[in-house]
Write a structure and sequence with these properties.
11 strands
């Protein structure tokens, strides 16, 4: 078999083994010309290779199958899955971020991850774990999220089993609270999957798993603080007073009747008394 990381004869004879499966697919590659596709593929393989190296996976020890504008991979059974949902994802994101800086034609990836019984029949990988990883990556929800988040370089979709048994346990570089669930239905697949955009609080999914439209104020912007503000609800929406709002010390303070909304230190009123006639 020509693919790297193929099982030995002994392993293949033992039948299916439990392995972590990764399927990555480039966003929008169908619109590119031949030269652009070549550069994209080279960058994609380089990013995957660097991410594998970051978790101690040596060249030739991971099974990889070329899928044109994507890569299907399966890790050896002894690979700790926490490293894959942690440092591997983080390194892949950093590689994409570095490559895309200042480029008009960016490499953006959707990655599906799952674990389960996988059989190498000498021609490729076989098993429901493989099918599900591919369908999570290619799901309509995954594609809609990347459309709604055009600045996102990487979207990771993990199966319910992988989230419950690995991601939810946490660990270094693992962000279980930044995943959001949505139902994936495709052919015979009906799974509760979990979606994650690295370095962002959450992908644009509502509480029912529906993708919010592009530009929605979801609070899902980059964690550096340059993303959109959180959604405004009747409870926290600022109410202009006389057509004006006041910004004090970089924090928003809204004056509404006899109340001051906002954590603003050093502001007193009514001669230093609060609304109850007591010292502020």
């Amino acid at each position: 078999m020509s693919s790297a990381g193929a099982l030995t004869g002994t392993e293949a004879g033992a039948g299916a083994l439990h392995r972590l499966v990764v399927f990555g697919d480039a966003v929008g590659s169908g619109t590119l010309g031949m030269d652009a596709k070549r550069r994209l593929r080279a960058a994609m393989y380089e990013a995957f290779g660097e991410a594998y190296a970051a978790v101690g996976v040596e060249p030739g020890t991971v099974h990889q199958e070329d899928r044109g504008d994507g890569i299907l991979g399966a890790l050896r059974p002894d690979m700790p899955p926490t490293l894959m949902v942690g440092r591997w994802i983080d390194t892949l994101y950093e590689c994409l971020r570095e490559y895309n800086a200042g480029r008009e034609q960016r490499l953006r990836l959707r990655v599906g991850m799952n674990a389960g019984l996988v059989l190498d029949d000498g021609r490729g990988l076989v098993g429901r774990a493989v099918d599900l990883a591919c369908r999570l990556c290619d799901s309509p929800t995954a594609k809609e999220i990347m459309t709604a988040e055009p600045t996102a370089d990487l979207l990771v979709v993990v199966s319910g089993w992988l989230y419950d048994n690995v991601v939810a346990e946490g660990g270094r570089y693992v962000e279980p609270g930044h995943y959001r669930p949505a139902r994936v239905r495709s052919k015979e697949t009906d799974e509760n999957a979990w979606f994650h955009i690295p370095r962002r609080p959450a992908p644009p999914l509502d509480e029912h798993g529906a993708v919010l439209p592009a530009g929605s104020e979801t609070g899902g912007g980059p964690s550096t603080g340059d993303g959109p503000p959180p959604p405004r609800t009747p409870e926290n929406a600022p109410q202009p007073i006389g057509g004006r709002q006041y910004h004090v010390g970089g924090d928003l303070a809204v004056f509404e009747g006899n109340e001051i909304h906002g954590d603003v230190a050093g502001i007193v009123r009514n001669g230093g008394q609060n609304g109850k006639g007591k010292p502020a």
